Amino acid sequence: MIPRLKWVSRVVSRCHPAVGEGCGRRAGVRLSTGSSLSSEEEVKRFIVENTEVVRGPHNTPNISLRLFTPSCRFWLARPELWPFSDPYWAIHWPGGQALTRCLLSRYLLEAPAVARDSRVLDLGSGCGAAAIAAKLGGASYVLANDIDPVAAIAIQLNCELNGLEPVPVETRDLIGSEAESWDLILLGDMFYEEQLASSLHSWLRECVRARGTQVLIGDPGRAQLQNHGIRKQLRRLAAYELPPSLREENYGLTASTVWLYQPET
């Protein structure tokens, strides 16, 4: 595995896709005790200074993102020096949130009619790549949802990198909330825990039943999705090969898939 932030390495190990145990529910980001970062502008400046602009990361040639790379000082820094909780939004995990979100974004960019003139929700948005792809694909309205407030700021910065007005970001947990009139819901690698998979299945089914919402899921083959009952209600739309450099990191998985969710209603 390529060296990276120590605490992220621990999370990756817990999220090994061949193991039935998954990560815990994503925690909201909190400033560390004594952190001097108090305003949104300070957080923006910190993100800009401690990430690198990556153009065309992993199967998304048309999108630029601020990410952690080996050039960044926190790539191997001691975790206690990082002023927030785990920065899921800043890494393209092999088979993880950011990577599959970008694979999902690639599908949207190749088939923009999927999002055109639609109201789109990007659930668990992370770095915001899928939200950006939907906006580039002609969506009439895009809402990014991530319970991490630092991710919300990073999403704003990534929108600006791509010449877009920042999309609105909701940091409230929307899973289980009343179904709204979304034409399209996007989920990139959200099925990393069995309980969460069941909650998503129930809520997404209600969104489809009540509103006729279309749901697209990007997943690298996590056991929590493959072994869950929801798997029988997915239709494969596209699959993308992982670059050779990522296959070893991704525990031998070779591709990530975009699924259409078609529940029995």
Identify low-pLDDT runs.
1-7, 9-34, 93-100
CA radius of gyration is 17 Å
Placed side by side, the strands forming the largest sheet appear as: 5-4-3-6-7-9-8
Describe the largest sheet: 7 strands, mixed
Tally of strands: 9
List the helices and strands and how they pair.
Layout: H1 6-14, H2 40-50, E1 52-55, E2 64-67, H3 97-110, E3 119-123, H4 129-136, E4 141-145, H5 149-161, E5 169-170, E6 184-188, H6 194-211, E7 214-219, H7 223-226, E8 234-241, H8 244-247, E9 255-261
Parallel strand pairs: 3-4, 3-6, 4-5, 6-7
Antiparallel strand pairs: 1-2, 7-9, 8-9
Q: Summarize this, please?
A:
With 265 residues, the protein is α/β, with parallel strands linked by helices. The chain is built from 8 helices and 9 strands.
Description:
The chain starts with 5 loop residues before the first helix and ends with a strand. The strands form 2 sheets. The protein has a 7-stranded mixed β-sheet. The chain contains 8 helices and 9 strands. Helix content is 31%, strand content 17%. The N terminus is likely disordered. The radius of gyration is 17 Å and the shape is globular. With 265 residues, the chain is α/β, with parallel strands linked by helices.
State the main characteristics:
two-stranded antiparallel sheet; alpha/beta; 265 residues; single chain; 7-stranded mixed sheet; 17% strand
